[in-house]
Input
Amino acid sequence: MLAGQLYDPLDKTLSQLRLKARRLWQAFNHSSPEDAPKRQEMLRELIPHAGASLWIEPPFYCDYGEQIYTGDQVFFNFNCVVLDVAPVTIGSRTLFGPNVQIYTALHPMDYRVRRNSLEFSAPVSIGEDVWIGGGAIICPGTTIGNRSVIGAGSVVTKDIPEDVFAAGNPCRFIRALGL
Output
């Protein structure tokens, strides 16, 4: 799975890992804001490779959590989804608007392979100081460069370079950011 090869998502070990993640994010999503220490403890268990000061507004959903790697001071707004079948790497100080979805899972184009419930994956990499607007979808195998901004509602299907504003469906270069 992590090597991008075909795998069976119904595998017993993978199913147990997803169940563990679901129990953790359900507890997190139903926890009280007043219990910040307990929330942070749940996040550390769900996303063990998170940098300092990870902040997630519930609800939040992921497949495993163990394949999410963040730098410091990463913020997810309400209702974000990370399908972390492959690694999702997020740089420090990156911000996600509400309803952002990050996908790493892929299904074969050949129906004969798909009917056997096999899938594969491709990692996602998001740089430092990136802002992803609300409702954006980040597709498998894409990279977003440092300091770039992705417009709300965009669908990122190809790599986005550093220091640009990109938007649309499919997401495309709009202009350079004059930094």
User: Anything to note?
Assistant: The helical segments are 12-29, 36-46, 111-114.
